[in-house]
Specification:
The radius of gyration is 33 Å and the shape is globular. By secondary structure, the protein is mainly alpha-helical. A three-stranded antiparallel beta sheet has the order 3-4-5. It has 15 helices and twelve strands.
Length: 487
C-alpha cells in the first residue's frame, strides 16, 4: 500500500532503479516493525554461511571467485582494492582498466604477501544509522547506500570503537515511562537451538507438540518409503475379454460376483483393498491436518504474545517512534548514556571522520542539513537554524559543501544508474562555473561515466532545481526525473 501511494503521487516516470530502491526501503521498514527478531536470527544464520568459492566462467580458461561476506566487509574490501588500484603509479603505456588493476592487486595481496610495493591504504565506509537504531531500535540503516539491519550496524560500531551499544537483548525494562526500572522484557536467544522455541508456550504444550511432530515425521518417512517401493503405483488396466467387460462384471443371472478359488485375487478383492487403503490414508491425513492446525494456532498465539511483549519493551518503543525526537523521548537512561559515550569516543578521531547528524524532513526523508553536535548546540543557542552550507568561492567545493552534496545524493543521479559517487570527484556544476555558483543547488553527484557523458553527449539537457531534483531530457525529447534518495 505504501509503495502504491508513493507511485500515485509522483506524477513522473519512475526508473527500475528508483523503484527497486524504494521497494528495498519499504520492505526494510516493514521488517523492522514486524519481523525484527526473525531478521536478526536470519542474519546470525547467514553469518555462518560466509565463505569463498570459485566457478567456471562462460569463457574457457576463466573463472569467477565469489565471496559471501557481510555488507561492511564486502564494501571495505572493494574500497581497499580500489584505493590500491588508484595508488599505482601512472603509466601511459599501461592499458589496464581500473577493474583489471583491482584484480591484479587482489592477486598480489593474497598470493604474494610482503613481496609487493603496494602502499597501505584506508578503506572509508559511509554508515547512516537513525537515532532509533543507536538507541536499541530496529530502524533500517545504510552502509555505503546499501540497506542493512540495525543489529549489523551496532555490531560494526562496537567493533570499531570498542563500545557496546544498547541492543534489543539488553533491554532493562518494559514499562511505559522509559526509566528502565520495570520488569525485564523478553530476551532473544540467537543460538541455533532457539530457532524452535515458542515464547508463551508451556512446557507441557511444547512436549506434546514435539511428540506430535515426531509422529508426523515417522508417518512421512513411511509414506516416502512406500512411494519409493512403488506401493502406491496405479494398478494395471484390466484386460477386457469382450465389450461387456471382464468376466466378473459380465451380465449374469447371478447378482453376486463369481465365487471360487479366484475370488481372493479378483477385481472385487482388489477394489476392496484399494478402498480400505484410501480410507486409511484419508484418516491419517485428517489426523495430520488436525495436528498441524493445532500447531499453527499455538504458534500464532505465541507469536502474538511475543510481539506484544516486545512492543512494550525499550527496543519496541524506540522502533515504533515516528521520528528521532520521539525515539529519544522513549529511550532509557542507559541508552542515552550509551549514545553519548559513542559520540564522545568517535569525536576525537577514532574514525576516519567524526560522526555527523543528518537532519531530514520527517515526511519525505529529504536531507535538510548535515551537522555535528557542536554546530547543533550553537544553532539551538543562537536560533540560527540549520540548512545547506553556503557557496564556495572558486571551482572546487569546500569540505563542508562537498560532504553535504555527497550525503544528499550518495549515488549517481543519472536516471537508472545505481553506481556510487566516487569520493575523489565527479560533483558537477549544473550551470557551468563561473556562470553558475559552486553551491548545493548547483552541484550534482555523478559516476565517472555519466559525468563524462553529460559534457560529451550532444543534445542531452540536465536541469537541476533548488531541492536537488534532476530532470534529464534526451535528444528525442523524452524526460526522466530523479530525486535525491530519501533517508
Amino acid at each position: 500500500r505504501e509503495l502504491l501511494d508513493w507511485l500515485a503521487v509522483r506524477h513522473r516516470v519512475t526508473t527500475p532503479a528508483q523503484l527497486g530502491d524504494r521497494v528495498r526501503r519499504v520492505i526494510a521498514r516493514h521488517d523492522a516493525r514486524h519481523d525484527a527478531r526473525d531478521a536478526a536470527r536470519d542474519l546470525a544464520r547467514a553469518l555462518r554461511r560466509r565463505g569463498v568459492a570459485a566457478r567456471p566462467d562462460r569463457c574457457d580458461g576463466m573463472s569467477v571467485v565469489s565471496a559471501l561476506l557481510t555488507t561492511p566487509e564486502a564494501a571495505a574490501l572493494v574500497a581497499a582494492l580500489g584505493a590500491h588500484a588508484d595508488a599505482l603509479p601512472h603509466d601511459p603505456a599501461d592499458g589496464r582498466t581500473h577493474g583489471q588493476k583491482m584484480a591484479d592487486c587482489l592477486l598480489d595481496l593474497v598470493l604474494r604477501p610482503g613481496e609487493t610495493d603496494l602502499p597501505p591504504v584506508q578503506a572509508v565506509l559511509s554508515v547512516v544509522a537513525p537515532i532509533g537504531a543507536l538507541l536499541g531500535g530496529d530502524q533500517p540503516c545504510e552502509i555505503d547506500g546499501q540497506v542493512v539491519p540495525a543489529e549489523l550496524v551496532r555490531a560494526l560500531l562496537t567493533a570499531l570503537t570498542g563500545h557496546g551499544l544498547v541492543s534489543p537483548t539488553t533491554d532493562t525494562g518494559a514499562t511505559g515511562d522509559g526509566d528502565g526500572d520495570g520488569d525485564a522484557g523478553p530476551t532473544v536467544d540467537d543460538s541455533p537451538e532457539s530457532d524452535q522455541v515458542l515464547l508463551g508456550v508451556t512446557a507441557a504444550e511444547a512436549a506434546r507438540h514435539e511428540a506430535e511432530a515426531g509422529e508426523l515425521a515417522v508417518w512421512w518417512a513411511e509414506v516416502e518409503r512406500r512411494v519409493l517401493a512403488g506401493e502406491f503405483d496405479a494398478e494395471p488396466p484390466p484386460q477386457f475379454v469382450d465389450e461387456d467387460g471382464p468376466p466378473d462384471l459380465a451380465p449374469s443371472t447371478d447378482s453376486a460376483p463369481h465365487t471360487g478359488s479366484h475370488v481372493g485375487d479378483g477385481w472385487w478383492a482388489r477394489a476392496d483393498r484399494a478402498v480400505d487403503a484410501a480410507g486409511t490414508a484419508l484418516l491419517t491425513a485428517q489426523q495430520v491436518l488436525g495436528r498441524a492446525c493445532r500447531l499453527v494456532a499455538t504458534a500464532e498465539r505465541a507469536d502474538t504474545a511475543d510481539e506484544t511483549a516486545w512492543r512494550g519493551s525499550d527496543a519496541g518503543r524506540v522502533t515504533a517512534a515516528p521520528d528521532a525526537l520521539a525515539a529519544l523521548a522513549a529511550a532509557t537512561d542507559q541508552a542515552w548514556e550509551s549514545l553519548a559515550d559513542l559520540l564522545g569516543r568517535t569525536a576525537g578521531g577514532g574514525l576516519a571522520d567524526r560522526p555527523r547528524i543528518v537532519v531530514t524532513d520527517a515526511v519525505t526523508g529529504a536531507l535538510l542539513a548535515l551537522t555535528d553536535p557542536p554546530r547543533l548546540r550553537r544553532a539551538a543557542r543562537h536560533a540560527t537554524g540549520l540548512g545547506a552550507p553556503g557557496p564556495t568561492d572558486g571551482y572546487r567545493p569546500g569540505a563542508t559543501l562537498d560532504r553535504h552534496v555527497r550525503a544528499r545524493d550518495r549515488r549517481c543521479r543519472f536516471p537508472g544508474c545505481r553506481r556510487r559517487v566516487p569520493r575523489g570527484g565527479e560533483l558537477d556544476h549544473a550551470v557551468p562555473w563561473p556562470a553558475g555558483p559552486t553551491a548545493a543547488a548547483n552541484l550534482t553527484g555523478y559516476c565517472a561515466s555519466h559525468h563524462r557523458g553529460k559534457h560529451q553527449a550532444p543534445g542531452w539537457l540536465h536541469r537541476l532545481t533548488l531541492d536537488g531534483t534532476l530532470t534529464v531530457t534526451t535528444p528525442s525529447g523524452m524526460t526522466a526525473v530523479t530525486e535525491p534518495p530519501p533517508y
